[in-house]
Amino acid sequence: MKNSSDITFFQNHSQQFKPLVSIIKQIQNATHATEIFELKKQLPPLINNLLAYGINTYHITHILTIITDNITKRFLDLAQKKLGPAPTKFVFLALGSEGRQEQTFKADQDNALIFSDVHKESLAQTKKYFLALSKQVCAWLHEVGYTYCKGRIMAKNPKWCQPMSVWKNYFQTWIKEADAKSLLDITIFFDFRAIAGDQKLATQLQQYVAQLTQNQAPFFLHLAKNCLNLKPPIGLFKNILVEHQGKHKKEFSLKKALMGIVAFARIYALKHHIQKTNTQERLEILFTQKLLPKSDEQELLQAYDYLMKIRLAHQIELLTQQHKPDNYLNPKELTVLEQQILKDIFTAITNLQTKLSLDFTGTT
Description:
Elements: H1 8-11, H2 18-29, H3 33-40, H4 43-53, H5 57-83, E1 90-94, H6 96-99, E2 111-115, H7 120-143, E3 161-163, H8 164-176, H9 180-184, E4 193-197, H10 199-212, H11 217-228, E5 252-253, H12 254-271, H13 279-288, H14 297-320, E6 328-329, H15 336-361
C-alpha cells in the first residue's frame, strides 16, 4: 500500500476491501454532501473488521485517508462546477494527520491552498475565487463530519489560501526567524501533502523547504525543544499518568502519547531532507539509510502500531455506543498485560527523547 493514494490499492487486495471500494466509487459519483455523510456511517464496522482481521494500522489509517482524500476531491469538483474553472493552477493541501496519511475517526480539518503567482492586476480576483472555492469545500467537509479546525488552519482562512510566493515567505520566516513558542502552532505545516490540483506546486514548495533547512541549527533546536515537551504519560515509578480533573479525569490522551513518536520522526526527516510525511514511512527510511540505529527499528514501529490500534479500537467502540469519538482512555479499561505494554512503550519513547536531546541540543 505504500505510496498509494487511490482506489487501486483496494482493487489489488483481498475480498476484505470490496465494501470499501464500493464506498469510494459512490463518493466519486456523489452529487451532495448528504450522500457522503451517509456513506461515512458505514466505515466504523468495516474498519473494525479489518482490525479484527489483523490488518496493520499503517494500512488502516491509509484507508481512512484515501477516503478523506476522495471526499475532498469530490467536493473540489462540485465546487468548481458551481463556481467555474480555476483561473490558474492550484493545489489543495492536507496538513497534520491527514497530511501524514494517519487519519482516524476523530478528525478535524487541517488544510491549505496554494495557487500559482499571477500578475498584480489579477491577484485580487484570483484570491477571491480560491477563497470562495475553499469556503465551499471546507463547509461541505464540516457538514460530513470533518469539523472546522479550532485554530482556523484551513484553506477558507485567507491567511492559508495564498500564492506560491507568499507560502515561500511563510516557510522562510518559520525556518529562519521563528522561536520554539511560535513554531508550536505551525508544526503541522511541515507535514503538508497534495490532495488535488497541480502536484508540481507542492513538490516545488517541498524542495524549497529542503533548501531552507540546510545548516539551520537554530530551527532544529527550537523543534527539538518542542519535541521534548511531548513527554509520554509515565511517572517516576512507571505508573501511567492520567488527568486529575476536567472532562477526561482519570484518563490519558492516546493522541499525545503518539505525538512523541510523530514529532521524533518529523524532526529527523526534515533534518535529512526526507520528503515522505507518513510517520512510519519516515522511520523506515531513516532506519534503512542508517540515520537511526537499526536496533530501535522494530521496537519503535511496533510501539506506533500498538498505540494506533488501541486508539482506533477505542474510537470505534465509542461510535458503536452512539458517542462522539475521542482520544482519551482510562488505563483501567485495559488488561494488566496491555497496561504493561503501554508502560514499556512510554519508557521507550522517553529513551528516544534522550537521543533526540543529545543530537539536537547537546544535552540529555
